[in-house]
Task: inverse folding
């Protein structure tokens, strides 16, 4: 009888693992942390995958099948990895207050594609969009003022870079894109501080155009835009955005910012 | 969740790669299961031309009808080969489909701002590599390039009670497809995970600042970007955006990055090794590397240095 039960359980194990894998994928999607690993534009694809796991698992529970031991082992590893991910997300969220609603300033920030400051109008843009304009030699470069957000890092005695990480598909293709910034006033920021930068793109006369580098300041490969420097009029401290990573880039106003 | 902790980043990268590839691997596994359960060898011999050149052409265009990235293609090709699909068609399809499909063509077009040379250069590199591989292995018997352990019947990798021969009723066919898909998915996932671990190790530990030493020289930059594509294992549907962000590198090296990645990368090498015989895996790695390098050097002037 015990043997019979064991056999029954073994027959239903692949189905149960598939269902649990599907549940874990759906839990991860509903955790609000999807963006930390994947571009949210793929959320629907991942959701369908979660349900597909559940459906296949259900079929295998109703019509049992057993898997080779090594295949079963890899299924358990995957289930373990996904469960660890969800547990770590859950632990991270414990003791944290629910995300506060947006401040008035953030609401206004989202409403308009431009911002006025000291008689100048700045186009809101993210670093990926700005570097695309630079690459395409857009007529806006040199003519317009821009406002973007990023993390500031000291890169030389008098030089700073503002960086932000771009994700096209998943974290594995994450690349940090940066712009050198220069100011006519002293800067005193800790590395990694989120700031808003107001100013315009100028040619980098102090450096050769080929002088750019790849680093790992943010933990990801970093590419600094060569041949230009962002002349900043104003720098402002800000809280990290809801989505610190850039997932979206547009080619014209209103930019994704 | 984005953390400076190296171990945590490593863990996140493995999961990101897995979750990114999982939908395509599952889709590939379901397609492979459908092929296993619902088709017989006669169907493919009727559909696919016998002549090597026509079989290659079929493989080259199949990606347009069944778009897939490289993550899901290995199980499909394994199943096609074990069902007797001509090697020329299956191998050409395996190398062409991750690039010659509408999604990847569009993503390359968008990432490079409609740069015709980059899009057509990418298609050319993929097509030439796929045709050469298809022609090169075209005369071999499908079963002779698969590892013995890889030619699996229902009872080899799952003991489902509904093999293709016995799955006659509707429900037993559905159950057989589900069992095959699950077995195929978890079987290939082992290799996907192994590739993801190596890629994550590289991404967290490699001194990427060394890259800046190479971008002044076309030959070196092509080599470096090819090595980078192989170790980063970026999905073919996203690699154009990654390549575009390496704008300081010469365009030929960006083409090399997009050319080699969908055919040879760490996760694919591990999957190839699980499915194909050793000498075939060596061909799958060496021949595309030589072709992509050669073509990118030839196209360097046209595409812009």
Result:
């Amino acid at each position: 009888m015990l043997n019979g039960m064991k056999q029954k359980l073994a027959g239903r194990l692949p189905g149960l693992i598939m269902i649990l894998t599907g549940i874990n994928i759906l839990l991860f999607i509903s955790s609000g942390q999807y963006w930390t690993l994947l571009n949210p534009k793929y959320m629907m694809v991942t959701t369908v995958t979660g349900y597909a796991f559940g459906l296949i698992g259900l079929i295998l529970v109703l019509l049992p099948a057993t898997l080779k031991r090594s295949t079963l082992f890899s299924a358990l590893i995957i289930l373990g990895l996904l469960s660890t991910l969800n547990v770590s997300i859950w632990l991270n969220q414990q003791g944290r207050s629910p995300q506060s609603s947006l401040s008035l300033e953030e609401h206004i920030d989202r409403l308009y594609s431009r911002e006025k400051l000291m008689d100048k109008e700045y186009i809101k843009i993210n670093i990926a969009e700005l570097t695309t304009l630079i690459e395409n030699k857009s007529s806006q470069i040199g003519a317009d003022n821009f406002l973007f957000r990023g993390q500031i890092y000291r890169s030389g005695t008098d030089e700073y870079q503002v960086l932000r990480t771009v994700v096209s598909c998943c974290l594995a293709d994450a690349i940090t894109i940066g712009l050198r910034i220069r100011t006519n006033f002293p800067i005193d920021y800790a590395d990694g501080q989120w700031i808003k930068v107001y100013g315009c793109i100028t040619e980098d006369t102090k450096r050769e155009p080929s002088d750019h580098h790849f680093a790992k300041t943010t933990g990801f490969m970093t590419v600094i835009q060569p041949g230009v420097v962002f002349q900043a009029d104003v720098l402002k401290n800000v809280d990290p955005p809801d989505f610190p990573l850039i997932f979206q880039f547009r080619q014209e106003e209103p930019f994704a910012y | 969740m984005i953390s400076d902790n190296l171990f945590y980043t490593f863990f996140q990268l493995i999961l990101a790669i897995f979750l990114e590839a999982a939908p395509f691997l599952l889709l590939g596994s379901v397609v492979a299961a459908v092929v296993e359960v619902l088709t017989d060898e006669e169907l493919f011999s009727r559909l696919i031309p016998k002549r090597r050149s026509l079989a290659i052409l079929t493989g080259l265009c199949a990606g347009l009808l069944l778009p897939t990235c490289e993550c899901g293609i290995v199980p499909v090709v394994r199943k096609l080969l074990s069902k007797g699909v001509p090697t020329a068609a299956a191998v050409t399809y395996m190398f062409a489909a991750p690039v010659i499909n509408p999604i990847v063509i569009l993503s390359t077009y968008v990432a490079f701002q409609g740069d015709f040379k980059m899009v057509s250069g990418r298609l050319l590199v993929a097509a030439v590599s796929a045709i050469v591989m298809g022609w090169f292995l075209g005369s071999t018997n499908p079963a002779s390039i698969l590892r013995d352990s890889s030619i699996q019947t229902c009872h080899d990798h799952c003991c489902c009670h509904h093999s293709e021969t016995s799955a006659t009723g509707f429900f037993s066919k559905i159950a057989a497809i589900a069992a095959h898909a699950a077995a195929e998915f978890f079987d290939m996932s082992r290799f996907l995970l192994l590739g993801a671990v190596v890629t994550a190790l590289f991404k967290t530990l490699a001194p990427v600042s060394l890259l800046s030493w190479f971008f002044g020289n076309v030959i070196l930059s092509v080599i470096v970007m090819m090595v980078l594509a192989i170790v980063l294992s970026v999905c073919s549907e996203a690699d154009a955006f990654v390549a575009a962000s390496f704008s300081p590198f010469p365009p030929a090296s960006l083409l090399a990055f997009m050319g080699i990645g969908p055919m040879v990368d760490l996760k694919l090498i591990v999957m190839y090794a699980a499915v194909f015989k050793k000498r075939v895996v060596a061909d799958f790695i060496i021949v595309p590397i030589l072709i992509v390098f050669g073509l990118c050097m030839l196209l360097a002037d046209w595409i812009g240095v």
About this structure: Confidence is low (pLDDT under 50) at residues 161-165 of chain B. The radius of gyration of chain B is 20 Å.
